[in-house]
Amino acid sequence: MADREMRAAYAQALVALAADDRRICVVEADLAKATGTGPFAKAYPDRFFNVGVAEANLVGVASGLAAVGKKPFAATFGCFASRRAYDQFFLSANYAGLSVTLVGTDPGVTAAFNGGTHMPLEDLALMRAVPGLTIVEPADPTAVEAAVREAAASDGCTYIRLQRKPAPDIYPAGEAFKAGKAKVLAEGGDVLLVALGALMVGEARKAALLLKAEGIEATVLDLYSLAPIDREAVLKYARLTGRVVSCENHRVTGGVGSAVAEILAEEGAPAKLRRIGAGADEFGEVGTQDWLAERFKLTAPHIAAAAKSMM
Amino acid sequence: MTKNVPETPASQAELKELAARALAVRKGCLESIASLGVGHIGGSMSVVEALVALYFRHMRLDPADAKAADRDLFVLSKGHAGPALYATLAQKGYLDRGLLPTLNKGGTRLPSHADRRLTPGVDMSTGSLGQGFSAASGMALGLKMDGPRPDGTMRRCWAIIGDGESDEGQVWEAAAFAAHYKLDNFIAFTDFNKYQIDGSTDEVMRLHDLVAKWEAFGWAALRVDGHDLAALDAAILKARGLKGKPVMIVLDTVKAKGIPAFEGKAESHNAPFGAAELAATLAALDAAAEKEAQHGR
In chain A, what are the domain boundaries? Predict the structure, then answer.
């Protein structure tokens, strides 16, 4: 079976939820074609709103809808969702105590041909600084569906970091997910590969195979959510292996690597850490996704090399 | 359950009652600010009559049930006028008047900028300018999605923005949006008191013709003396009757209205205001009210 588009899973999950929940509505900012919410607009035209190219108002309108009891899902490119509408999401949605789901698409190098201007390598860092916000980056289409269901059921705000492109299925249909609960995709005693999102969970799994061929056993964790983060799972396998590689399609500051480092330091876990991600002083660039993944050393061979550097 | 609001202009007796409310709100607001010694006096004083016209005549509310499911909604997008809103809510019975002196003190339910999590009767948290107005447009849309009340009337969302706030791009994003979605249950006010923090609006960032700007964005726009309760009442009544588009009522106001030492001065935005200033202002307000009453006779 061909890989499913992540965005198709997003739209289908919303359509399915909206059938039973009149509160679900979708707000777009002239990127509905990119987000792929056309099926929702067709099924529920009276609950689909386009605010035009106006991301601040996108989040403002979504917050207003939430203030009158709706369950808005607002989406735009991750660069705009985070950098451009940050104060709106911070204050009108989160500070105000409302339940708004903001979806940032095209994370990190998946922004590809849109280039450095559109490449969110800092959205996780920004979002992690918002008190109480749930941050999810699903690793496959099934996880996308779960993330949408979880966000709709939540009383608080959620940031869903959504790779739009197709991704291979990892989980069986209907698999249950919970923010703060990582998935253990492989267990090994030599190194922990802790990853977030479809691209990096995929690369971490490939890296585990590369390492296995050399007799190195890796544990692979799909974090699913960065906030809350599964401290228990990170600690358990960090203590077991003594070596951790964090894998994120993001700058190494403020995201997965930083969150893992905080846990290790706070708990005094005896583990070394290598962080895979764009460099702290690097902006994004333009290119194919594959070229960019290599450019920022996000691929399996780099993850495996980082693991081996600690042996 | 809320009760319907009047469909006819306020009588002389009703206007007199509104004027008394405005005086009480002004005093309550200044007493709360004076209890701290500093605050947003200028932009609080300029919106008093608009708040009184809304809360005591034109908004459908039930103070006994701040979350009444059929209520109108109000967003103070210029959130720094919170002290005026709290004094109004206290007059209306949402809050114990005794809370007013807790303004901005640690642990208070009355923070400088309006906060929906803390204060009964506050529907949206505001303070980062432009955001409240944008959220208010979303609230108006949400109310439209829910359709009219059983009696056929539509729930409205009301909002007040500042003239300085009108520099914010998000105001104009929301303006385009509300007109595009024909949100005629959205009635907003611009408190055009002519001053922002760094000086007059003409010096800092010229606003040009506000009525023309709002009309160009697809709104109906009116302009009225924001301290003339009869004119204000008539304008709001007219706005309530307009269909097919949102309405902006530009209020010609005086910053720090009612405080002789600060009236019409940019410095009044956030200024020291203690016991001495309060005593002088209360005396001036009473004298002005007395004069008005004699003039009225």
Answer: 4-167, 183-308
